[in-house]
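Notebook p. 47: complex prediction with glutamic acid.
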Amino acid sequence: MTDLLPHHLRSLQAEVADLRASSRRGRYAPSPTGRLHLGNLRTALLSWLITRLQGGEWLLRIDDLDTPRNRPGAEASIQEDLRWLGLLWDGPVLRQSERRGLYATVLSALRRSGQLYPCRCSRRMLADVSAPHGRSGVYPGFCRSLAPRWGLEDERLPSWRLRLEPGRLRWQEELGPEGCLDGPQEVGDVVLRRADGFLAYHLATAVDEWALGIADVVRGLDLWPATGPQVAVLERLGLEPPRYWHLPLWMDGQGQRLSKRDGGQGLADWQAEGLGPNAVIGRLAASLDLVPEGAELSAQELLQQCQLEPLRQRLIQPRAES
Ligand code: GLU
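Predicted complex, structure tokens below:
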């Protein structure tokens, strides 16, 4: 199916395959919606560690396409916190907002080859019709077989959805059983361009993992369900998905996930207690029993103490216990 890709992107394929084979590239890809909380920082540390243990380059990609959710100063604070912890990335900071041309090219290639259809269903309408115990978020396919209507209607453009073929989507999951979701039943036709004109996160992320030659995607377990739509896009383009590591999430004292947008528990609190970078790295690593409580060490020292396979085993444990 790679012939779907425009010629200049098809030629990138060999380069990407070489890159993936020669360097196990990783990335950290925060959205600039607020200051990183401790869970985000631990994910960043593990993504850096897993990549560096394999001798790979580690990229920093800012997922800033959804501009209304971006917060002023968030990107600067993300960079500052990573640097302060000694988590240094390779190359320039990448921003999805500066890569829109690439995503738009892939979107139009998919559209031209009939893989997408316009959808007029609003979020509210879909919420109203979804059965109380139905799988939320799986599009029921109302517009799938209608004759396409492209233009403005009631001052709204359609969104564009990828038509999922029957079958299962699979991916290699390093911290749990192989990822496997039924395309139409559990993922549903994925929006790749939103009705408000924004290119969707799933499109941009799937294209980026491929175009940047990312071998290992290390991110929070909350993004496990996002993997189905992203693998669906890659598969449709005939492209190999990366390996995924979905990490346990950091919970607060009440068992709730931390949220960047709520400004939950960031580095500032620990810095105010007088903790330096080594103490913070120690606390982040101790929270997963990688080092004893109270250890103080730099990210580099932690890297020297770790080995990939025992680390992988250790990261599988917390989920088995919960
Ligand atoms: N940018 C998204 C986030 O911050 C997704 C990150 C990812 O795919 O790793 O939640």
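Notes: Residues 29-31, 63, 205, 219, 223 surround glutamic acid (CB under 6 Å). The CA atoms of residues 192 and 203 lie 6 Å apart.
Next step: compare against the earlier run before touching the bench.
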